[in-house]
Amino acid sequence: MRIAVVGSGYVGLVSGACFADFGHEVTCVDSNEDKIKALKAGVMPIYEPGLDQIVAKNCAAKRLLFTTDLAGAVSTAETVFIAVGTPSRRGDGHADLSYVYAVAREIAHNIQGFTVVVTKSTVPVGTGDEVERIIREENPLADVAVVSNPEFLREGAAIEDFKRPDRIVIGIEDERARAVMTEVYRPLYLNKAPLMFTARRTSELIKYAANAYLAMKITFINEMADLCEAVGSNVQDVAHGIGLDNRIGSKFLHAGPGYGGSCFPKDTLALVKTAQDYGSPLRLIETTVAINDQRKRAMARKVARAIGSDLRGKTVALLGLTFKPNTDDMRESPAISIIQGLQDHGARVRAFDPEGMEAAKAYVSDVEFGTDPYGIAEGADALVLVTEWDAFRALDFPRLKSVMTDPLLVDLRNVYRRALIAKHGFRYVSIGRPKEDIPVVLASAAE
Ligand SMILES: NC(=O)c1ccc[n+]([C@@H]2O[C@H](COP(=O)([O-])OP(=O)(O)OC[C@H]3O[C@@H](n4cnc5c(N)ncnc54)[C@H](O)[C@@H]3O)[C@@H](O)[C@H]2O)c1
Fold first, then answer.
1. Which of 65, 130, 139, 142 is nearest to 100 (CA)?
2. Which residue numbers are catalytic?
3. E strand or H helix that includes residue 168
4. Interacting residues of 213 by C-beta distance below 8 A, sequence separation 6+
5. How far is the CA of 287 from the centre of ligand 1 (A)?
6. How is residue 88 annotated by DSSP?
7. Ligand 1 atom 15: the closest Cα is on which residue?
8. What backbone phi and psi angles, to 5 degrees, belong to 316?
């Protein structure tokens, strides 16, 4: 099958590379010439484990091409995926659909023969209707079926998620699209990945409902962590205890500094706006958004409390900047609010992140970037673990203690156990675990 993917960012590039790996002939289009030039030279614009190999393999097999020529790619494609960004619109938080609609307009003039146009970008309910309207308005002769096929991949595990999805959601209004989409995903279908066909507007909402639910689950455990601190319970054990209930499940129950990234913040906000517009407000999600915004900034106050004095003249060293490990994505990372908050309190901020420092420079200022945890810890009054990269899971505490002014670790990801840290003479503050950790032993039913 010949596929064009318009937008070669996280989703477009991963989707294009994986479709090519399935055996399809894929052309990835992007309007950013530098990005395409780099991709042609084998340089990935993002850090995503395994992506460079899969791109190289499929480029060598001539199944994967990169171009800025949208017209050429679309005119020969049977299926065109739209995978451009849908950021929050400045001012009101609605999804900015200008990129999607611009691509729809461009596609319209270049379609040849029956073509399935698939919106993979995360878009509000009704966007598919508008994409179809735009294409028909621009080119009344275009023979198209406009489909919704939201993407659920996680950055850092994108290839695995794309190739082994829990489900593939496909929203169609034109029955002809069913066979085409089944063919696109045939290799996954054979692997028993459930293909779920539904109406287009339902498919669009499924994506937002999924992200809103996950954001709410994270926020639930984050609030529970605050309560644990107040009442002397351990949030990790609470999460474990409730997560063993199949109706709840253990995933997305890790308390931390608040969710970030390119999806949850903007998608929850866009869903809230859509729901308000339709007179059917989602109060749970409105509250989730508010709690999470406040939480990120509250983390700076938590660090200040741990240091215990005025932050003026103090140096705080941050381990990790990206919103999660194994990505260089800094969009909406809690680190941004934490840094801002610490600087507002008068602290000097240093930071090290294995992959995110270049990207971070666009979001924060007056931060001294280091090359490893030990360099930034020199003379620091606190070390704050913000992102749980593997590189921070086995720190050399004697070495850190020897260079820090005050041996204090604020662990915002609950990576360490208090007993270990205390043994090295560190003060330790974590999330929702106010007391000495007591290991939980689960007795099996047979005992
Ligand atoms: N990043 C994720 O983890 C993720 C997961 C699921 C869904 N999504 C959704 O997928 C969509 C894309 O997200 P992303 O993170 O890949 O975005 P991104 O910003 O990384 O990439 C978008 C790309 O589209 C290109 N582009 C913009 N206008 C174009 C045009 N007219 N023609 C050609 N190229 C154009 C940009 O240059 C950019 O390279 C969003 O709607 C997002 O919400 C993202």
1. 130
2. 263
3. strand 168-171
4. none
5. 27
6. B
7. 10
8. -115, 130
What is the Å distance from ligand 1's center to 203 Cα?
A: 19
How far is ligand 1, taken at its centre, from the CA of residue 146, in Å?
18
pLDDT tens digits, one per residue of 205-232: 999 999 999 999 999 999 999 999 999 9
Strands 79-82 and 2-6: parallel
Instruction: Name the residue at shortest CA distance from atom 26 of ligand 1.
Output: 7
Q: Residue 117: CB partners within 8 Å, gap ≥ 6?
A: 79, 80, 82, 104, 107, 111, 131, 135, 144, 145, 146, 147
Ligand 1 nearest-atom number relative to CA 32:
37
Secondary structure E strands in 279-343: 315-319
Contact 254, 243 (CB under 8 A): no
- Mean pLDDT over residues 167-178, rounded? 98
Distance separating alpha carbons of residues 419 and 416, to the nearest angstrom:
9
Other Cβ atoms closer than 10 A to 105: 15
Question: Using an 8 Å Cβ cutoff, are 336 and 258 in contact?
Answer: no
Q: Average pLDDT over the chain, rounded to whole?
A: 95
From the CB of 72, is ligand 1 less than 6 Å away?
Answer: no
191-195, 230-234, 259-263, 283-287 — which is least confidently predicted?
A: 191-195
Residue owning tokens 């529970």 = 224
> Residue with the nearest Cα to atom 21 of ligand 1?
9
How many angstroms does the Cα of residue 441 sit away from the middle of ligand 1? 45
Tally of CB atoms within 10 A around 296: 22
- How far is residue 399's CA from residue 208's CA, in Å, rounded to a whole number? 46
Pocket test residue of 11, 13, 27 for ligand 1, highest count of atoms within 8 A of CB: 11
CA-nearest residue, atom 32 of ligand 1: 31
Cα(292)–Cα(269) distance, integer angstroms: 11
Dihedral, 142, 147, 148, 152 alpha carbons, nearest 10: -110
Q: What digits encode the pLDDT tens for the residues 393-447? A: 999 999 999 999 999 999 999 999 999 999 999 999 999 998 744 444 455 544 4
DSSP state of 95: B
C-alpha torsion 259→263→265→266, nearest 10: 180
- pLDDT, position 445: 46
